[in-house]
């Protein structure tokens, strides 16, 4: 997405500002995701990342589909990238609000079977 933002034309002052704003928003999103991932407990980097990916599978799948669609669509423009970035940010925020927690001790297994919609016992 960063490369696509950089390739956008900046024909006017406002287009230049819009490109800068998109780049800033992408930086903020990447920082937020990194901090969220680092907050998923102790262990080596691979284990922490695996736990984070498991807990955010739905948002990751959506973001991946959206990024593939952007790559396959010729001529990405400011509107497309703005909406795509906003969608990714919204999914990230929703995933952060939806903190997974361990099941009660009486729960039969972990992770909970959830029909693919959620990764936890909520």
Automatic annotation (TrEMBL):
Residues 1-87 form the NAD-specific glutamate dehydrogenase C-terminal domain. GO terms for molecular function: glutamate dehydrogenase (NAD+) activity; L-aspartate:2-oxoglutarate aminotransferase activity. The lineage of its organism: Bacteria, Pseudomonadati, Pseudomonadota, Betaproteobacteria, Burkholderiales. It comes from Ramlibacter montanisoli. GO terms for biological process: L-glutamate catabolic process. It holds the Pfam family GDH_C. InterPro entries: GDH_C, NAD_Glu_DH_bac. This is NAD-specific glutamate dehydrogenase C-terminal domain-containing protein.
């Amino acid at each position: 997405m960063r490369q696509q933002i950089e390739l956008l034309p900046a024909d006017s002052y406002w287009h230049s500002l819009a490109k800068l704003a998109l780049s800033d928003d992408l930086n903020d999103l990447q920082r937020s995701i990194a901090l969220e991932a680092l907050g998923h407990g102790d262990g080596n980097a691979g284990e922490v990342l695996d736990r984070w990916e498991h807990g955010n599978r739905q948002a990751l799948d959506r973001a991946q589909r959206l990024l593939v669609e952007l790559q396959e669509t010729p001529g990405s423009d400011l509107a497309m990238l703005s909406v795509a970035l906003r969608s990714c940010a919204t999914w990230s925020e929703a995933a952060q609000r939806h903190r997974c927690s361990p099941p009660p001790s009486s729960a039969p297994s972990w992770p909970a079977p959830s029909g693919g919609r959620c990764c936890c016992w909520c």
